[in-house]
Predict the 3D structure of the following.
Amino acid sequence: MDIKGKTVFVAGATSGLGLGVARCFAGRGANVVLVGRRRELATELARELGETALGVGADTTEPEQVAEAINAAVDRFGTIHINVNTAGIQGYLPLIAPSGPTEAADFMRLWKTNVVGTFNVVSRTAAVMLNNEPDHDGERGVIINTSSVAGEDGTAGMLGYAATKAALIGMTLPAAREFAGRGIRVNTIVAGGFDTPILDVTGRDAAAGQIQFFANPRRLGQPEEFAAFAAHIVENGFFNAATPRLDAGYRVPL
């Protein structure tokens, strides 16, 4: 799918990987809908990108807010062709904490944001895409979700986060098969080792300590590199139902 002139709906677009995607796709001539919980920031960032960008405030865990954001996108640009989901949270969550068994509510907080939030956006953007006219290759839309290397080789203490990211990997093939012959491709990028604001919460020193486990290059990835890969997935019409890792060869140690 040619990115130029298409409309991309980016959930989690106000920082990190999502903001990198928004800027990259805007630079390639797309209409960009920046969606984030911080409405004012989303609007400000959209203003910086120009007239072909729209900032919308929405909590992806709330179906009504997602529906309103999608309606705003369709009202402004006519339809949605591409959906990239990067919204998510991370947190330390073992089975047994120092105070005793971990409460299920703590697990559900991660699950609701990372899995349910992504589901809400995917199901509703796909419904819009199915109404698009197919291009010469029969394509109507492209969906890209964001998982983590933790979903494949999570370490102790990250059970909750790892479970949510594994779930996104598991959603990929069934979703792609649901849209088989209907013109929508679904892929999930399994990302690891990126320099985003989440490191300010989880610890930049801890992240720096993991670089020794990278194959090459031995540095943190940049949101621009994630965005470039997302753009390639959109433009490569044969790329479907895949969960490629983008992690410099990083494998999480025990």
In short: The first helix runs from residue 16 to 27.
